[in-house]
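Pilot study result, target chain (263 residues):
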Amino acid sequence: MAEPLLLTTTRVSTFRGRQSLTAATAFFFAREERIFAVTSRHVLHDEPSGHFPDRIELVLHVDASNLTRTAVLSILLYRDGSAVWRQGRDSAGPVDIAVIELDRKSLPPGVVLRAFEPQHIQAFTSEVEVGASLRVVGFPLGFYDTLHHLPVVRHAIIASSFGVRFQGQGYFLTDGRMHRGSSGAPVVMRSEGSEAAFPWRLLGVHAARLDMGDRDTVNDETLGLNCTWYADILMTITQDGAPLSEAEMGPRAAPNRAAPKPA
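Predicted structure:
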């Protein structure tokens, strides 16, 4: 049996019709009897890059004692022309987080997963200090244990004041080596001294790498900083009655291979 943290996360593949587009990361969030797949909004819909998938696939484990056994859950992103996902928005505008509610009846028999719950969301307290150690669970550049279908974990630290909206936006910064394919990855911190079976606190959702627009690409390295959107928005967009996204399917031209934001 894998560590529970690794079972919170799944690989996302996006499609438009039969055309394979991109791969990213999602994780599970449960609220009472409901369960959601959480990822970055730009994984599902990204106007700047012309990324407009109409379907995603999630890979799910179906045997706790044999992790090589999996099933693929296919999810249409639109129903009757309307998006089926919900996305975050705050006083500064759109938040790069989206959730899709999963029908428990559609999950394969014997499904094996671990979901974060509301009590795992980290509150804005002084105990979370700048420089604190974090884990980012995902599929960087599509890399993972292809035999057992498990993600890998990257290390990062908090690089801006946790609880302070960086430049007025709903995210904080992390310092860590991130790659495309990690969009939608949960960013977590271990509860020190906790003896709980699942001692992880959810701080946010990794979205993108940051860079300076005027950086000298010859003499200056990239910043190595990333933006992570605060996880507390999940309590808003998973509540009963939260509206679905108003995103449209995008141009109905031939499928494209445009990648989402580099995250």
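One observation from the pilot: The two ends are 29 Å apart (CA to CA). A full batch analysis is planned for the follow-on phase.
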